[in-house]
Design brief:
By secondary structure, the chain is of the alpha/beta class. It folds into two domains: 165 residues, Rossmann fold (3-Layer(aba) Sandwich); 82 residues, Rossmann fold (3-Layer(aba) Sandwich), CATH 3.40.50. The strands form two sheets. It has a six-stranded mixed beta sheet, sandwiched between helices. Strand 1 and strand 2 form a beta hairpin. The longest helix has 19 residues. The chain starts with a strand and ends in a 6-residue tail after the last helix. The mean pLDDT is 91. The structure holds adenosine-5'-triphosphate (ATP) and magnesium ion. The site of magnesium ion has 3 residues, from helix 1. Magnesium ion (MG) binds next to helix 1.
Length: 256
């Protein structure tokens, strides 16, 4: 299978702290891959380095077989390459409606500027219709089509997480990065989320997720990478990782 992502020797230093220390990982097309590890292990920093929020201190990132230019590594260019993400702390336009949130996010894919959509410039109407339709279809897929005119801030927490995923999907990604998508969700919402992530993968989108819900990680992942103190400590299929002593130790006896 083709490799979508190959990270080697990824290092990120913040002043005196080595947040990532020569991290390696690889993701094949069509996989669901999880990144786990205790709080502060460096998981979100991996996402931030992949998406250009941070410039790595060292290492290589190959995406679709080519090295990313880490000197010009900024979020909007990364998004254009087909890498979309959600954030551990939800980031939505809280005063916009659900569908507006998705529509502005699709600006990237539609070659329409964010401002075009916001300011209703010439030609907006026609584009708006197609953008509206596609955004609505996406919300149907995600399970929020009955709330398109609700303000994002009025959605329940689990729904806001789903809206974030819809916004990421609106950019038509190749690779979707989800940072703790199940955080704050109840058991039913988490079960729905697992189905949703599988459906996303079935659309041909490769999924890379950070998650603390071990039941979810073990049931959904093709492979799991484990970080502790910024270093790789284990990787493999869920059944291997679950019984790895270093992993069990890292979680201080927490049942994995
Ligand atoms: N911008 C920053 N400046 C300084 N230190 C940072 C910065 N971002 C992250 N860190 C540090 O890097 C380490 C890794 O943080 P990171 O957020 O990647 O952890 P995490 O594995 O995502 O943890 P959690 O499970 O709590 O979300 C932590 O010690 C954190 O304090
Ligand atoms: Mg994190």
């Amino acid at each position: 299978m083709a490799k979508i992502l190959e990270v080697s020797g990824l290092t990120k230093r913040f002043a005196g702290l080595v947040a990532l220390d020569k991290v390696n990982l690889d993701i094949e097309k069509g996989e669901i891959i999880s990144l786990i590890g205790p709080n502060g292990a460096g998981k979100t920093t991996v996402f931030n380095c992949l998406t250009g929020v941070y410039k790595p201190t060292g290492g290589l990132i190959n995406y679709l077989g080519k090295p990313l230019d880490l000197k010009h590594h900024v979020p909007h260019l990364v998004a254009k390459l087909g890498i979309a993400r959600t954030f551990q702390n939800i980031r939505l336009f809280s005063n916009m409606t659900v569908i507006e949130n998705v529509m502005v996010s699709s600006a990237l894919r539609e070659k329409t500027s964010f401002l075009d959509i916001i300011l209703h410039v010439k030609g907006f109407k026609i584009r708006e219709d197609s953008i509206f339709r596609k955004s609505f279809e996406l919300l149907q897929f995600i399970g929020l089509s009955d709330k398109i005119y609700h303000l994002a801030s009025n959605l329940a927490y689990g729904e806001q997480r789903k809206l974030e995923i819809a916004r990421a999907l609106a950019t038509a990604p190749v690779l979707l990065l989800l940072d703790e998508p199940a955080a704050g969700m109840n058991a039913i919402e988490t079960k729905d989320l697992i189905t949703l992530i599988r459906n996303i993968r079935d659309k041909g989108i490769t999924v890379f997720l950070i998650e603390h819900d071990m039941k979810m990680v073990m049931s959904i992942s093709d492979r799991v990478f484990v970080l502790n103190y910024g270093k790789n400590i284990a990787s493999g299929v869920p059944s291997q990782v679950q019984k790895n002593e270093l992993v069990i130790e890292a979680y201080l006896g927490e049942k994995v």
